[in-house]
Design a protein that fits this description.
Alpha-Beta Plaits, 2 domains, alpha+beta
Length: 209
Amino acid sequence: MANDWRVTVTLHDTSGVGQAMQALRDHEVEDDVRRRLGHRVAVSAEGACIFLYAGTEDAAREADRVARELTAQRGLPADFVLERWHPDEEEWEDADVVLPRTAEERQAEHQRLEQEETRESVETGVAQWEVRVEMPSRRAAAEFEERLQAEQRQVVRRWTLLVLGANDEDDANALAQLIKQEAPAGTKVETEQLGPLLPFTSIGPIPIW
């Protein structure tokens, strides 16, 4: 399921998280809740926050109503935020934010994201993206590391793995494409954005509806 919608329930007292989570699980077996939602909802928790993920706006809004009812019934004060995943910004936005609809709007959003990532990389000195290069052998990794260093590229090697930083997604993709062209056969190249995107607990989301 594409969990593009999220309800964040922030409890005023962290001691109530367990009670709220149990209340949500108890509602899993109630036919009226399943009928009202019409879609599966997953839940996870982190600190004082409970996150409800849904695939549609209707399901998310119904999950929001159910969560409000359950916390109110149990006397658990909480704040509620309904958000939607923004595919271009690659972050959660308020549900009322209008997503870009045209190719030009999506390109503008993408460029703004790239500029923001580059700015953060420069200001913090920490790359926002990385290119991970898995070489076919330790010798190949050492030789390719020397080649990259000769090209004035900063690279870290761990046995057969080479890691290079990039300021933004476009830079990472361009660097990955260049390495694919120059690396020996059997090399695996991947790009990865640094940092978690979804605040799931260590055991992952728990489906409840």
